[in-house]
Amino acid sequence: MSAAPKKKTLAENGDKGIDTGLVTAITNGEDLGPIVRHAFESGKPEALFHQLRIIVKKKEVEIEELCKLHYEEFILAVDELRGVLVDADELKSMLSSENFRLQEVASALLLKLEELLELYSIKKNVTEALQTLKICVQVSNLCLTCNGHISEGRFYPALKTLGLIEKGTLQNIPVKAFRKVIEKQIPAIKLYIEKKVCCEFNDWLVYIRGMAKEIGQLAIGQAASARKREEDMRSRQREAEEQSRSGVGDCVYTLDVKHIDEDSVLEFDLTPVYRAHHIHTCLGIEEKFHDYYYKNRLMQLNLDLQISVAQPFLESHQPFFTQIAGYFIVEDRVLRTAGGLLSESQVETIWDTAIAKMTSVLEDQFSRMDAASHLLLIKDFVTLLGATLTRYGYRVAPLIEVLDNSRDKYHELLLFECRKQIADILANDTFEQMVMKKEYEYDMNVLSFHIQSSDIMPAFPYVASFSSSVPDVCRIVRSFIEDSVNYLSYGGRMNFYDVVKKYLDKLLIDVLNGALLNMIHSGNLVASQAMQIAANIAVLERACDFFLLQAAQLCGIPVRVVERPRSGLTAKAILKASQIVAYNALLNLVNSKFDEFMAVMSNVNWTADDAPEHANDYINEVLVYLDSILSAAQKILSLESMYKIGVGTLGHISDSIVSAFLSENVKRFTISAVMGIDNDLKMLESFADERFESTGLSELKKSTSFRDCLVEARQLVNLLLSNQPENFMNPVIRQKNYGALDYKKVATICEKFKDSPDRLFGSLSNRSAKQNARKKSMDMLKKRLKDFS
User: How many C-beta atoms lie closer than 10 Å to residue 730's C-beta?
Assistant: First the structure.
C-alpha cells in the first residue's frame, strides 16, 4: 500500500520542468514540427529530448496504472474475444460456401454484364456522335442560310448569320477540320460582301453623277417658279397701289399658299449608300468607307468643276451649274440622312472648293463677254443657283459678290448696245411727224410711255407732235430699265433703286442726249428737222417721269417716294438744256435762210426817186417762209417754244433790215427807198400781230410781242421818215421813240441818207418847203452825231 504513494511522489517530482505547451500539443495531437524546428534552430535539442523522455515516462506510468486498474475487465474481454474468434471462423466457412455457390450462379450473369457495359459504351459513343452531328448540322444550316442571303444580295442578314456562327457555335464545333474550314471561310465571306457592296456603291456613284444634272434642273426650276410667284405678287401689289392712288376700283386681296416639299419632287435613290455604310459599320470598318466615300465624291466634284472647252460658256453654263447644284443637293441629303457618313466640316470644305472654282470661272468669263444679254442670262441663272443652294444652307455670298462686281461691266455693255441702237434710230429717222392710223398704234406708241398731250382719245388718223424715233427710243430706255433691274435684282442688294436711277441718268445723259447733241451739231440738218428734234427732246423730257416711275415700280419703291421734290432724274434738266441748244440750232438754220432772202435787199433800188407802190419782192419770200416756220412750230412745239422761235426770227429780220442800211453795198439811199422798206416793215408788223393773236401767244402775257421784235427797224425807218430827225438828239424824245437805236449805227446810216437828186430845171420849183425842212433837220442831226462821236 505504501509503494503506490511513493511512486506518485516520484512522478510528481518528475513533472517538474515539463513544458505544458508541449504536453498540450501532444495531448491534442497537434503537429510538433514547429516546436522541433524551434528547438534545433535555438541550439537546444537536448532540452527537447529531455522533455520528451519525461513525457514518455509519464505516459508509461499512466498506462501501467490503467492496466492495473482494469485487469479483471481485460481478462473478461480477452475471453469474449476468443469466443468471437470461434464464431468468426464459423462465419467464414459459411461465407466461403455461399461464395462458391454465388460464383457458380453469377458466372453466366457476368457475361451478360460485360455485354451490357459494352452496349452502354456504344450508346455513349452514338450519343456523342449525334451531338456532334447536331452541332455540325446546325452550323451547316447557318452556312447555307448565309450563302442564301449572299446569293440574294441580302448582306446584312448574311453578316448577322456570320455573327451567330462566329460568336455562338464556332467554338462548339467538335470536329477540328470542320471548324478550321469555317474559320477560314468567314473572313473570305466578309471580304466578298465588302467588295460586293463597294461594287454597288461604285455603280451608285456613276448613277448619281448622271442624275445630278436632272436633280439640279428640278431644284433650279423650283427656284424659278418661286421667283415667278414672287414677281406676280409684286405685280399685283403694284396694281393695287396704283388703284389705291388713283382711287379707281376695289382692291381684292387673296392669300395664295403653295408648299412644295423638295424631297417629294427631288427623288433619287440613296439606298446603295445607306446599305454600304451600314454593311461597313457591321464589318467594323466604318471609317474606311467614310474615307472612300469622301475621296470618290471629291473626285467627281473636281470633274464637274471642269469647264467644257468644246462649246462657249454661254451654252455650257447651265449644265455646268445644274451639275454642281445637283451634287450639293445630294450631299445635303447624305449629310442629313446617312447617319454620320459625312460631317458638316467635310461638306463645308468641298463647298468652299466648289465656290472658289465657280467664282473664278465667273470672273474670267465675265471679263471676256462683249454682250450684255449674255452676261444677264448667265447672271440670272447664277442667282437661281444661289437661291436654290441657299435653301439647303449653303453660303452663296461670294457668288453674289462676283455679280455685284460685274455690275459696271454689264451696264457698260448695255449702254454700248443702247448707244448703237439709238444712233441707228436717229440716223434712220426722217424727223417728220408720226402718223398713227389705229388706236392700238396710239396705245403702243403714246399711252404706253405716258407722253400723250391729253387724256382724251384723239380721232384717227392721229398726227403726233414727235417723229417715229421718240417711241423707238422710249422702248430702248424701257428695255434698259428692265434689263438693269433684272441684273440688280435677286442679288445681294435689297434696295437698288438708286443704282438703277444712276444708270438710267447715264443712259439718258451720256447716250441719248449725247446722240441728240451730235446730230444737232452735225451741220446736216435742215430747219424742219431741227424743229422736230427740239419737239422730240421736249417729249423725251416729259417721258423722264415715266421712266423714273417705271424704275421705281420694278424696284418695288412706293410711288410717293418718286413724287417727292428733288427726287427726279438729272437727265430731265439736261434734256431741257438740250432743247435750248436745239432751238438755237433751229434759229441759226432759220436765220440763215432769212439771210438768203434778206440778201436780195441789195437788189432794192436804194436811190429811187419815187416811192414804190408795193412791198419789195424779198419780203414776200420772207413772209412765206416765216409763216411756214411758225405754222410748223405751232403743230409740234409748245407755245413757249413757238414764242422763242418767233421772237428770235423776227428779231433777226429786224437786225437784217438795219444791217442792210449799214451794208457796204449800200453807198447811199433816198427817202423813196426808205418808204419802200417802210412798206415791207408794215407787212411784217401786220403778220406779227396776226400770228401773235391767232396762235394764242397773247395769253402768255409776255412783256414782248412779235411786233416789239421789229422795234429797232421800225424806229430806224421812223427816224429816217421823220420831218424832224434832229429830235433824236433830244434825250426825252430819243428814250420814248428811238430807245432801241444805237448812236453809231444811226450816225453811219444817216451819212448814207441823201435826198433825191435835183432834176433838170426842176430842182427849185419841185422841192417843197417841207422837204427842205426835213433836209435841214437831217443835216443838223448828222452834224450833231458827228460832234457827239
Answer: 13
HEC-encoded secondary structure of 178-207? HHHHHHHHHHHHHHHHHHHHHHHHHHHHHH
* Spatial contact of 536 and 467, defined as CB atoms under 8 Å apart: yes
For 483-504, give the DSSP string.
HHHHHHTTSS-S--HHHHHHHH
3-state secondary structure of 436: strand
What is the residue type of 562?
Answer: V
The grid coordinates listed for 389 are 443652294
**Distance of alpha carbon 335 from its chain centroid, rounded?**
24
How far apart are the C-alpha atoms of 579 and 581, rounded to whole Å? 5
Task: Please report where in the chains the cell 443652294 appears, as a residue.
Answer: 389
pTM of this prediction?
0.70
Who has greater pLDDT, 421 or 566?
421
pLDDT tier at 755, thresholds 50, 70, 90 = low
Q: Between β-strands 462-463 and 435-436, what pairing exists: parallel, antiparallel or unpaired? A: antiparallel
Q: For residue 145, what are the contacts with CB-CB under 8 A and spacing of at least 6?
A: 161
**Cβ-contact 322, 217 below 8 angstroms:** yes
Give me the chain's average pLDDT, please: 83
For residue 109, the number of C-alpha atoms closer than 13 Å in the C-beta half-sphere is 5
The dihedral built from the CA positions of residue 489, 493, 498 and 503, taken in this order, carries a sign that is: negative
Instruction: Give tens-digit pLDDT for 100-114.
Output: 888 888 887 888 888
What is the arithmetic mean of pLDDT over 202-228? 90
**Cell matching residue 519:** 446730230
Q: And the C-alpha cell for 319?
A: 449644265
DSSP assignment, residue 665?
T
